[in-house]
Amino acid sequence: MSIRTNYEKWYDQDEYYWGLKPGDFLNELIGLCPPSNDKKVLDIGCGEGKDAVYMAQKGYSVTAFDLTDNGIRKTLKLAKDRNVRIHAYTDDINTFETNERFDIIYSTGTVQYLFEENKKAFFEKIRRITKPDGVVYFNVFVEKPFLTLPPDWDLEEKMWKTGELFTFFPDWKIERLDEVIFEDMSGGIKHFHCMDTVICRKVDL
Ligand SMILES: C[S@@+](CC[C@H](N)C(=O)[O-])C[C@H]1O[C@@H](n2cnc3c(N)ncnc32)[C@H](O)[C@@H]1O
């Protein structure tokens, strides 16, 4: 079964597969680029919209996309339930295009679906569509010889190399750069992930 089919199935229920608690990193991003109604945010791989809707509630103008129709349907429903507007649509991280520019661009749990051959072009695009003084947040799962692949890891997901994510923003101001190993129970079996995270700013020269 393709990863799209899997996610469509997981999202095809009233319950929110990832819950509704916004990502811990969002308040850090908000601190680095405080909201106003002319500030634009892009959420890449928004899932069922918990983070995108939270950002809209904080006062940003939010655009979000995900590969799945069910994810977008639930994102729009959540926005409606919480009385905020959001621009959400289905698209693919590998091929998405936009003419807009954003103050905050973030993607959590999704960059592993970027094909190897698209990495360079993707990050060139991100660099281009970030407004001067804007900030970006990305995380990726990285491989370690002492960690086994998670039990629910899919063939369409690609592990990154330690530090690889950081190489796309050498000339930006690094606000946060870290690698952590954490325990997870997804798939019902205890396992560990190693994750690299970068938050950085396109300094207005
Ligand atoms: C681990 S979930 C994270 C969802 C959301 N960011 C969150 O934290 O709740 C990964 C998301 O990536 C999406 N996805 C997978 N492949 C994608 C692709 N090629 N383009 C865009 N989104 C994709 C899935 O549909 C899924 O919603």
3D structure, described in words:
This protein has a 7-stranded mixed β-sheet with strand order 3-2-1-4-5-7-6. It has helices at 3-11, 25-32, 50-58, 69-81, 119-129; strands spanning 40-44, 61-66, 87-90, 102-107, 130-141, 173-184, 191-201. With 205 residues, the protein is of the alpha/beta class. Helix content is 24%, strand content 27%. The termini are far apart. The model has no long low-confidence stretch (mean pLDDT 95). β4, α5 and β5 (130-141) form a beta-alpha-beta unit. α1 packs parallel to α4 (69-81). The chain has a single domain, classed as Vaccinia Virus protein VP39 (Rossmann fold, 3-Layer(aba) Sandwich), CATH 3.40.50.150. The chain contains 5 helices and 7 strands.
Task: Provide key terms for this protein.
7 strands, 5 helices, seven-stranded mixed β-sheet, alpha/beta, globular, Rossmann fold, binds S-adenosylmethionine, 205 residues
- The CATH topology is what? Rossmann fold
**How many DSSP-defined strands?**
7
The domain tally reads 1
Overall, the morphology is: globular
| Secondary-structure class | alpha/beta
Average predicted local confidence, pLDDT: 95
Summed up, the helix count is 5
In short:
The chain has five helices and seven strands; from the N terminus they run ααβαβαββαβββ. It is of the alpha/beta class.
Show the helix and strand layout.
Elements: H1 3-11, H2 25-32, E1 40-44, H3 50-58, E2 61-66, H4 69-81, E3 87-90, E4 102-107, H5 119-129, E5 130-141, E6 173-184, E7 191-201
Parallel strand pairs: 1-2, 1-4, 2-3, 4-5
Antiparallel strand pairs: 5-7, 6-7
The protein binds S-adenosylmethionine.
